[in-house]
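[Q] Does anyone have a clean structure-token version of this?
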Amino acid sequence: DSIQETAVANPGRCRVTNSSKRYLGCTFKGVVEELRNAGFANIELECQCKAKKGWLSKEGAISKISVSGQTQFDKGEWFAEEAVIRIAYYSYGSAGENSAEKELTNA
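[A] Here you go.
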């Protein structure tokens, strides 16, 4: 089956571009863009603000992701277009929440 044939066979559904494990640690902005390009529109961001940055932590890195409440999923798995995608990410200081708000309103 080609990608187009598969999409026609799954109307109103979109595929995630990576597994839940692969998204963890990625920058939320890039993942939001990827998921929007895949057809998902209902993406919610949650800033997990921290006072101090850990040595392995990076600004904007995804700490949790779920699709329709499902926290474990495989690359290429199909979900409804209107599925709620919740992304929690790390931010240090107060700039993170403003960044997420700008990201959602500019899309």
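[Q] Thanks! Anything notable?
[A] The two ends are 32 Å apart (CA to CA).
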